Amino acid sequence: MERPKVTFTIDKNILLELNSVAKELGQKKSHIVEQALELYFDTVDTIVADDRLDRLESGKDKTISADDVWKKLGL
User: Fold this and answer.
1) What residue spans of 1-75 are helical by DSSP H?
2) What are the residues whose beta carbons fall under 8 Å from the beta carbon of 56, sequence distance 6 or more?
3) Could you tell me the residue ranges of all domains in the chain?
4) Half-sphere CA count of 1, side-chain side, radius 13 A
5) Separation CA 32–CA 21 (nearest Å)
6) What pLDDT does residue 1 have?
7) Cα 75 from Cα 62, distance rounded (Å)
8) What's the CA gap between 50 and 56, in Å, rounded?
9) In the predicted model, is pLDDT for residue 19 greater than 90?
10) The whole model's pTM is what?
11) Quick one: which of 39, 37, 40 has its CA closest to 6?
12) Distance of CA 40 to the CA centre of its chain
């Protein structure tokens, strides 16, 4: 797996917490950030899915049958 190097700015208090947790767990900060982002993205996925379901149930969005999609794509 490719692991590109990234640079970003974060709040000083978050960095202090990250440093503390990394030291306590004996893990690299990058590993902790990666795990935290994975958990965050899982949460966001759930929020987006719930929002999409709400939009479908309220009639704001409509579904399209697979047959219609395939026809439109010429499949």
Assistant:
1) 12-25, 29-58, 66-73
2) 62, 63
3) 12-73
4) 2
5) 8
6) 83
7) 22
8) 10
9) yes
10) 0.73
11) 37
12) 5
